[in-house]
Amino acid sequence: MFARRRKHFGTPADKATYATLHTASLATPSLREGLTPEAAGKASKHLRDLLGTAAIAICDSSGVLAWDGVGGSYESNHRVDAKSIAAHTLRTGRTAVLGAGDVACRDPQCPIRTAVVAPIFTEERVVAVLVAYSPRSSAALVRATEEVARWVSGQVELAELNKERTRAMEAELRALRAQISPHFIYNALAAIASFVRTDPERARELLLEFADFSRYALRRGGEFTTLADELRNVERYLVLEQARFGERLTVSLLIAPEVLSVAIPFLVVQPLVENAVRHGLEGSTGIGRITIRALDRGSEAEISVEDDGVGSDPEVIRAALAGEPKGDSIGLGNVDARLRQVYGDPHGLVVETALNAGTKVSFRVPKYSSGVHASAWSVRHD
To answer: 357 in the Ramachandran plot: left (φ > 0), alpha (ψ -120 to 50) or beta?
Structure first.
């Protein structure tokens, strides 16, 4: 015996709530792009559905970003007039309710007779307005238009925050490139120069490795790469360092094939390996051992770099991660900041160290994360 399915699920209020949330969710992706004409155009239909009005316009100081709805035979005139209608609210930040004398046209069939103009803010600054056109005005329409404009403001602010995050990451990356170069380029070129007379073929191979490393490290076009590409660049770095240190540098890798395609922020592994080389070998005469691991942890990939060198004072590491480096821990704070910006605080660096006890630096990243996509990249020998 089968139970009869209900034809209706929930109360009318439940259905109305669901419909409103669903419509808002359709507008969200476009608004998260910022208030560009293209994004406003995509969102405008959904915003009009939220308000249930005859037409809406989104305007900024430059003019009408988007229009959706009907306007009778005088629609083009209504669109042209929208800029002047928006001017007062753009200037004052106050909602305006306009009657037929301000917005109606001569077409008796045109449903546009009134308009509610509500401000859209970012950081307490009016950046645009939402104009809701309807046959008649009401207190409910005014409140609804203000609420929708307030919600749009929140989405636009999130878009600005995303842009700020991207700009911050780009600045961090530029700073990291500048920080790596002085530490590494001189030693790499000195090592290559030592082979020019004794082993020209080895010098040529090392120069090619150095060129590929530099091309990758200084590349443009994308904040993210695959773990495979990042490890390939680490390999180039280690080839150059082994030319310098010879048998004193030993490297072990334990890499799970399943995580090679995971997208990660560009240049987050190499700085950790460079730290390990410096702390594991420089200033000592023995053999330095470095272990690089990339392990599959279910929904995450765990990446770690460990050395058996001199270790560090934990307070020095804490200062480096806080952006106040007191030692020579190359890029630790930079890498930690970028990981937290992309994935959140739980995905920052974890550093285990003590004086004369070596150092292990590890972090975890989701295998799949919204907005994190590796850009295409290849290294070619010219």
So the answer is: alpha
- Long-range contacts formed by 198-205: CB under 8 A, 24+ apart: 202/243
Following DSSP, what letter does each residue of 202-268 receive, concatenated?
HHHHHHHHHHHHHHHHT--S-SEEEHHHHHHHHHHHHHHHHHHHGGGEEEEEEE-GGGTT-EEETTS
Higher-scoring residue by pLDDT: 183, 193: 193
Q: What pLDDT digit, counting tens, does each position of 58-105 carry?
A: 999 888 999 998 865 556 678 888 888 999 999 999 999 999 888 888
The pTM assigned to this predicted structure is: 0.56
Given 3.30.565.10, 3.40.50.2000, 1.10.530.10, 3.90.960.10, which CATH number is that of 183-366? 3.30.565.10
Hey, where are the domains in the chain? 15-175, 183-366
Beta strands in the chain (DSSP E): 55-60, 63-69, 96-98, 114-122, 125-134, 224-226, 249-255, 263-265, 288-297, 300-307, 350-353, 359-366
Rounded average pLDDT over 342-351: 90
Q: What CATH fold (topology level) applies to the domain 15-175?
A: Beta-Lactamase (3.30.450)
